From TrEMBL:
Family matches, as InterPro entries: 6-PGluconate_DH-like_C_sf, NAD(P)-bd_dom_sf, UDP-Glc/GDP-Man, UDP-Glc/GDP-Man_DH_C, UDP-Glc/GDP-Man_DH_C_sf, UDP-Glc/GDP-Man_DH_dimer, UDP-Glc/GDP-Man_DH_N, UDP_ManNAc/GlcNAc_DH
Location of the UDP-glucose/GDP-mannose dehydrogenase C-terminal domain: 334-435
One term of GO molecular function: oxidoreductase activity, acting on the CH-CH group of donors, NAD or NADP as acceptor
Family per similarity comment: Belongs to the UDP-glucose/GDP-mannose dehydrogenase family.
SUPFAM superfamilies: 6-phosphogluconate dehydrogenase C-terminal domain-like (SSF48179), NAD(P)-binding Rossmann-fold domains (SSF51735), UDP-glucose/GDP-mannose dehydrogenase C-terminal domain (SSF52413)
Organism of this sequence: Roseomonas indoligenes
NCBIfam families assigned: NDP-sugDHase (TIGR03026)
Protein name per UniProt: Nucleotide sugar dehydrogenase
Keywords, ordered alphabetically: NAD, Oxidoreductase
GO biological process terms on file: polysaccharide biosynthetic process
Amino acid sequence: MDGSYASASWRDALIARLTTRQARIGVVGLGYAGLPLALRFAETGFAVEGFDIDPGKISAISAGRSPVHGIADDRVAASGMRAHGDAAAAAECDVLVICVPTPIGPHKEPDLSAVRDTLAALAPHLRAGQAVALESTTYPGTTEELLLPVLAAAGLRAGRDAFAIYSPEREDPGNPEGTVARVPKLVGGATPACLAVGQALYAPVAGGLVPVSSLAVAELAKCYENVFRAVNIGLVNELKRIAHAMHLDVNEVIDAAATKPFGFMPFRPGPGLGGHCIPVDPYYLAWKARELGVPSDFVELAGRVNDAMPAYAVMRLRDALDDRRIPLRGARILLLGLAYKPGVPDTRESPAVEIFRLLQERGAIVAYHDPLVPRFPATRRLHGTSPALESMALDEAVLAAQDAVLLVTPQPGMDLDLVRRTAPLVVDTRGAMRGAGPGTVVAA
């Protein structure tokens, strides 16, 4: 059979199955990005197979329950999705979409072990006519370096009898506007045929398509959109420190600047970066830049500034306690909010965890309150020694017993008026309690 004819035959057959919703979609990694995507495919008429190594997720989905905060049980129950703890059912799938974590290692290096492990598990089940799409955030070159050799080892050539796609997730947990159904989808393919398949795959489920010329363009665009935020947050975090030195309210300064109707976009300072992308992506891009021998000064500087913010918050707390002649060692400190942002229970890379560690290291007696994080999670930041703590009740007795309250993440429903009235000292890293009056609330 002529190669070009074979390519067109496999491509056209898969596109036809996708267009008519007859294709079976496999989603690997059923977390904050993978599960909403799998449900979206199911809700638009596709048969869906879900894969995850977490037995708890498999059990929950099989019982019609959602293992992800913010996703209703009834959506999972109605999806008809089957959940698997191994990859055997991947052979039944026409498309395999990989949505696994890509964190950084202890030395800020990219950790692609989950992607490699996933590809190794899928390899025995790959076949002609399939497409494999990677959605995990990563540095440019990953899909070509990791996926294409796996296809080749299975006797498959990308663009001829199998299709390699990169289409980064853009899910924003807790934001109803930040879902796959509403956000335009970047799509890159290893070849024009791969791109055509990718567009047919995502057209029914995404809030528009943005096809790009290559896998690497899609990978770099994803890095850039998050590095853009990291750099601007780093800038405003530096501004915060300058404003504090001048005894100015940084949020008032930002509000004033934001009245300019052009050439300005407001970002807000905080205690540091958290979550799955913004604290991680700068290091992926900087790592790739170093490999290429290209400087990435802005990117690396922003990373250093943002990484330093938890220590800055602890310093502001220490200074506020010193003003009251209370040493930090032995002080009773209540952290408000352990998650990385309001409205979610996600503690990945949360600055609150680093603040907790720094306070313990300095001898403070630390507890926390977070209505969405009932128990302190295991985390590498505490080197396997995460405290066996549960979220404290937020009541007058608990607040009055503290030397200080450190507001890290204001969760919905958190009674900040009670905190303002009752706590002897509040150190606010978010500007959530502006206007509380001098002496009660200290900005951090």
